[in-house]
Design goal:
about 1000 residues; alpha/beta; eight-stranded antiparallel sheet; flat
Length: about 1000
């Protein structure tokens, strides 16, 4: 793309799509020689005032020399970037490397002068801030460490762009010009500013989709039953508050299904905010172009035939995303089920759900349309009959998730006042690092419950672009829990937990009171609590003759007990007239619960449809005319029948109906108070709390257990701890050693890549004669370096981690010489892959007190297992006896840096008893990491044994975390075994791998993912 004199090829990796402050998108890319006409056109649309601010003088037009200068770059010392929408420039930025005297320079000069120009029509959209992030990243890549900018004092907008960026800067005023100088190294403040802007922009982009002022359905046909026609009718029937249009190129009519009709989006005489595209895949590009040219802000593409259909469809999907982003539009889908917003301000049902869900406080996200239908249907049944009118705030089904993802929706829910609880069904996580960061922040404000499908399938669903990870699903789940995510395994558990969290306070602890009119049901609940590691109090049996007043008194007593954090009420039906008794019982439970609003109450009912309905009515959410009798579904969950309200408005709604399920009518929607108390919000109107009821004790207790763990996480996250500073850490020396080792490895000829099955090293470093390059964890195409024993020990020692030396013993004589160097007693062990760390197989001999015992052990090992060349034996000094543990750290390409801990041995490996934390680890993280494995009691004096030095173990974890966090070139570390004695510990084996620093997209400029 560039002319021959240019020193570098066009850097395509600098191209990126970004979300702007108003929720629209723009493309950032390098300016090249063939952009001359675009640059001239862009400049002509800039006001005279903006030109004056850029050039400090009237500058009505660019000369040919200017155009050449601004479009020809070497992409090293002179770089220009443009933000484009619809292929046209809306803003530009450039830097020129300068020397200390301000003259043009080349490397090693590390300062550059930077200047921006934003088209007036696009000022205020955050374009300059986004460009600054990208040009700063480009400059750092090219060895520039500092920017300088000269700005006229009157140009307050540009001064604010620089000062608000969060970089450390110096400001001066000279000759009537403000001079700003700032370092480009990211700071905590610059990252915080960047992420706050990212949140606002991405949340706004989703808000534009979920709360449009006007919607056009492209592909709405004349015949009822088609996809487009169904969505049009669903929007109409839901009472969408904005303007609605039908679009179909074959239409001659001016109206379709009572909605204004047009043959093209271009023919609509008013702005269109959202377009739902339901035409065959081959016609989608034409529809997208029409929408883009008309200024449509967002798309929902329900059309199929994309990545889910194979290679050709995958490329069609990529082109769809490129086309939509070219026009600044965000996209849900393709192959999407649709979106819903139940807010009375919007009433949007742009989906294939035939009926609008109830208005409520639960946000739903599903990558699968079928699962989305099931969630809506189940929430309708459970929300309306069992727990009261607990409905949905917003629903997004992302389909192939080509653009808008769960991360974007999390950004929206974070500060959405209508959403108290977020429920997500995920089949893949495209950016786990970002998802974990957003989940941690969201979970600190409101509960986030996630169920992940396809977790054992080994591959992502068709159409989903997912970063490769080497971490097992259990590890990823543990990391999500560390971030505050409530991880469940089934859709049923997702709904159970969501309903409890949406309508009850968080329990302060695990102590559970159980009361009811069935001793057997109480005992089942008690056992379920123990199984979930809760602390149940002895069940209180009120007997089958208990009245509603007995229940009220018992519940009030339990809630007043300081030794109780939550109450589970069990109830079985009475014989005879049930309706009156059920209503009385519901009122009794409600009144007792309202008197103690700080503790959650759950009900386990057995075929008590009347009680479920009464609980709903008692909560004060039924229509003024009273609740109609309830039908009971086959599952035993109450389903309300239809009732009407005198209030004007949309017709009553019914639950979304799945094939093969019964259709039920719902009561007319009454909007719930936004202040109802839940795990996410607080309110003085506690008497309107809804009491969740469950048809089985196990389900109620499982939901309660998740609420308890989440409550504990909320308490702990308020004080996350600190990363300690250790004065003996030699960070600079470690950096120099790492740089030298990588430089030496790069200078050596590289061996041929090994097969994937052999990519992971099999030998311990103490058995390696020298450093060997091999495949890097983040990709077999990139060389990594396995350190030899000397380099491993030296690097770890710089962080205060001492490794006991193991000396090679290829012959009995050399084994004796090694033992004499180390001093008796010694250990003799093999380092062959199949015997490594397997004392149970006989590959280790301990406490060898003299030469005779050593030679005898050497002979036994070689006679049992093979020649020394195969066994690769080593001699090591004996360490104080203690508990054998394993400490590992790895940089996963998807999840980031992870620290792992567990006890050594086959039993722990078999049970998967390993705990994980994201790096950097705080002192609180280290303490919880040690205590979170099931075998942790062995470290604390189990059955009268001497307690291990846990403080020394926690310090080791913190030091290793610091090493990996300080030096991203350290991509893998394994310390095995680490023997933790009653006093101190010993690291007997260590393994370290280095590689060039992997890309950290979470530290770079804001970008939309490229799938």
């Amino acid at each position: 793309m560039q002319t021959p004199p240019d020193r570098h090829e066009y850097p395509a990796h600098w191209e990126a799509d970004v979300v702007l402050r108003d929720g629209g998108t723009a493309r950032v890319r390098p300016i090249a020689a063939d952009d001359a006409d675009r640059l001239v056109s862009f400049y002509e649309q800039v006001s005279a005032e903006s030109k004056y601010y850029r050039f400090f003088a009237p500058y009505p037009r660019l000369s040919a020399k200017d155009v050449h200068r601004f479009t020809h770059h070497d992409f090293v010392d002179r770089v220009g970037l443009a933000a484009t929408v619809g292929g046209e420039f809306i803003a530009t930025v450039r830097y020129d490397r300068i020397a200390a005297d301000g003259r043009p320079a080349s490397a090693p000069a590390d300062e550059a002068e930077v200047a921006f120009l934003v088209q007036d029509a696009h000022q205020g959209r955050g374009v300059a801030s986004a460009l600054l992030e990208h040009v700063a990243a480009v400059a750092r890549e090219r060895g520039i460490r500092r920017f300088a900018a000269e700005v006229l004092p009157a140009n307050s907008k540009m001064i604010k762009v620089f000062t608000d960026a969060g970089y450390q800067q110096k400001r001066s005023f000279e000759d009537g010009v403000v001079r700003l100088e700032f370092d480009l190294e990211p700071t905590d403040r610059s990252l915080a500013v960047q992420r706050a802007r990212e949140q606002r922009a991405e949340a706004r982009s989703v808000a534009r989709l979920l709360a449009p002022g006007s919607v056009a359905v492209v592909g709405a046909g004349r015949t009822p039953g088609g996809v487009g026609r169904s969505i049009l009718e669903n929007l109409r029937d839901a009472g969408f508050t904005g303007r609605l249009y039908a679009v179909n190129g074959a239409l001659q009519e001016k109206e379709l299904a009572g909605v204004p009709a047009h043959r093209s989006v271009r023919d609509i005489g008013e702005p269109v905010d959202l377009a739902v595209i339901a035409v065959p895949a081959e016609r989608v590009p034409e529809a997208v172009a029409e929408c883009g040219e008309h200024g449509v802000q967002g798309l929902v593409v329900v059309s199929a035939g994309y990545a889910e259909s194979g290679t050709e469809g995958r490329e069609r999907q990529r082109e769809l995303v490129r086309q939509a982003r070219t026009y600044g539009m965000r996209l849900i889908g393709p192959n999407a089920f649709g979106i819903i917003n139940t807010s009375p301000r919007t009433r949007l049902n742009a989906s294939l759900a035939p009926e609008m869900p109830r208005t409520g406080r639960i946000g739903l996200f599903a990558q699968s349309g079928a699962i989305g239908i099931a969630l809506l249907s189940r929430l309708h049944r459970r929300g309306g009959g069992v727990t009261g009118v607990t409905g949905v705030s917003t629903f997004v089904s992302s389909g192939n998730r080509a653009d808008v993802s769960g991360n974007d929706v999390l950004q929206y829910w974070y500060d959405d006042p209508d959403t108290d609880v977020a429920l997500m069904y995920l089949e893949s996580i495209g950016n786990p690092r970002k998802f974990t960061r957003l989940a941690r922040r969201t979970a600190a404000a409101k509960p986030l419950v996630v169920v992940q499908g396809a977790r054992h399938g080994g591959a992502a669903p068709q159409g989903h672009a997912v970063r490769a990870t080497r971490l097992p699903h259990a590890t990823v789940s543990a990391l999500l829990r560390q971030a505050g995510v409530i991880r469940v395994d089934t859709i049923t558990e997702l709904v159970d937990a969501g309903l409890l969290l949406a309508r009850q306070p968080l329990p302060a602890g695990p102590r559970v009171a159980i009361l009811g009119n069935s001793e057997s049901l109480g005992l089942l609940t008690y056992d379920a609590c123990l199984a979930q590691e809760l602390r149940p109090l002895p069940p209180r049996d009120l007997t089958t003759g208990a009245t509603a007043e007995d229940f009220r008194a018992a519940l009030a007593h339990a809630l007043a007990d300081d030794a109780c954090d939550a109450v589970v009420v069990t109830a079985i039906p009475a014989v005879g007239e049930r309706s009156a008794a059920d209503a009385a019982l519901a009122e009794a439970l409600r009144s007792a619960s309202a008197a103690a609003p700080a503790k959650p109450v759950l009900v386990v009912h057995v075929e008590l449809g009347g009680l479920a309905e009464a609980l709903s009515a008692a909560a004060g959410t039924a229509p003024a005319g009273g609740a109609a009798p309830a039908d009971t579904a086959a599952t035993g969950e109450a389903v309300p029948t239809g009732s009407t309200s005198a209030a004007a408005g949309p017709p009553p709604q019914a639950a979304p109906v799945l094939p093969g399920t019964e259709s039920v009518e719902a009561e007319s929607v009454e909007t719930e108070s936004a202040g109802t108390e839940s795990a996410g919000t607080e309110s003085a109107e506690v008497d309107s709390r809804l009491i969740p009821a469950y048809p089985a004790a196990e389900r109620a207790v499982r939901a309660l257990a998740e609420a308890v763990k989440y409550g504990q996480w909320r308490q702990e996250s308020a004080d996350p701890g600190r990363v300690p500073e250790y004065e003996d850490i030699d960070e600079k020396g470690a950096a120099e050693q790492i740089d030298q080792l990588l430089a030496d490895a790069a200078a050596r000829p590289q061996p041929q890549p090994r097969p994937e099955a052999e990519a992971q090293p099999e030998a311990e470093p103490d058995a390696e004669p020298e450093a060997q390059p091999d495949a890097r964890p983040s990709g077999p195409e990139e060389a990594a370096l396995t350190l030899g024993p000397d380099d491993t020990c030296a690097l770890l020692a710089r962080y205060g981690i001492d490794v006991r030396r193991a000396l090679p013993a290829p012959t009995p004589g050399e084994a004796v010489a090694a033992a004499e160097r180390l001093g008796y007693p010694v250990a003799l062990k093999t380092t062959a892959p199949h015997l490594r760390h397997r004392a149970d197989l006989g590959g280790v001999r301990l406490d060898l007190a003299d030469e005779e015992q050593l030679r005898r052990a050497y002979t036994e090992l070689t006679s049992l297992f093979g020649e020394p060349e195969e066994l690769r034996p080593v001699v090591q000094g004996m360490a104080p006896r203690g508990i054998d543990t394993v400490v590992r750290a790895v940089i996963d390409p998807a999840a980031g840096a992870v620290l792992s801990f567990g006890l050594a041995g086959a039993a722990s490996e078999l049970l998967g008893d390993t705990a994980h934390r994201l790096i950097p680890v705080t002192d609180r993280d280290a303490a919880s990491l040690v205590r979170s494995i099931r075998t942790a009691p062995l470290l604390f004096g189990w059955r009268g044994s001497a307690p291990a030095d846990v403080a020394a173990l926690e310090e080791l974890l913190l030091r290793l975390s610091r090493l990996v966090d300080d030096h991203p070139e350290v991509v893998s570390v394994s310390l095995e075994p680490v023997v933790v004695a009653p006093r101190g510990l010993s690291v007997l084996g260590a393994f370290v791998r280095l590689a060039p620093p992997p890309a950290r997209d979470d530290l770079g400029p804001r970008t939309l993912p490229v799938y």
